[in-house]
Description:
Helices cover 26% and strands 31% of the residues. It contains 4 helices and 8 strands. The chain has helices at 9-15, 31-37, 71-76, 84-88; strands spanning 22-27, 43-46, 49-52, 56-59, 65-67, 78-79, 82-83, 92-96. It has a 4-stranded antiparallel β-sheet with strand order 2-3-4-5, with no helix packed on it. Strands 1-8 form a two-stranded antiparallel ribbon.
Amino acid sequence: MTENNIINPEVEEENEAVEPKVIDTIQADSPENLDKIFSYITMVRFEDYALFDSFELYNFETEESVQFNSAKEAMDYVLNGKTVGEHIKDFKLILTE
């Protein structure tokens, strides 16, 4: 048996996947939390819409957008019978090390 055919247990251990350590989870269930989320990412997407960190709500289907002045104003906007806040309340940003 040549050296190339020998399995090195140390190398196998190095190649194993390591689970990232979760340091925080932020749920988009309030304007304050949405502001925190937007300090890490630039967009939350749901259905045919995207809410950007500039508080622009964009519809991918119609290519129309609505501009808001704050997270609260955006989350209070009614869209298809529910507020944007209701549409995105289950969105979670998971921060890892």
